[in-house]
Write a structure and sequence with these properties.
This protein has about 100 residues and is mostly helical. It is about 70% helix and about 5% strand. The chain folds into two domains: about 5-50, no CATH class; about 50-100, no CATH class. The longest helix has 20 residues, at about 30-50.
């Protein structure tokens, strides 16, 4: 089973309650919920996937921060938690602007 299927089954466990609508064709209610959960999970993975454009933007952010450090405009040590947090913050801000 995939991670999405495992999580869907955990969230909506299989039950033995069969629904039969007036027009026929029975189904287990939770199976529809699981299918929707799995579909949403896969869509979220696609939406959050990094692209080559994202990596180019990240590279630009690194270069800008490095330039600011060398000019003395930023007091942050490279290769530290704060350094990478700043890169991530700037990347998210630029990506948000780009997606508007």
């Amino acid at each position: 089973m995939s991670k999405a299927e495992d999580l869907a089954l955990e969230k909506y466990p299989q039950r033995s309650v069969l629904f039969v609508p007036a027009r026929g064709g029975g189904y287990y209610a939770d199976s529809h919920l699981r299918e929707g959960f799995i579909e949403g999970y896969h869509q979220a993975e696609k939406d959050l996937e990094l692209t080559w454009e994202d990596f180019a933007l990240i590279r630009l952010v690194f270069d800008a921060i490095e330039a600011n450090i060398h000019r003395g405009a930023m007091k942050i040590q490279p290769m530290t938690k704060e350094y990478y947090q700043e890169v991530l913050k700037r990347f998210k801000d630029l990506k948000e602007e780009k997606d508007k």
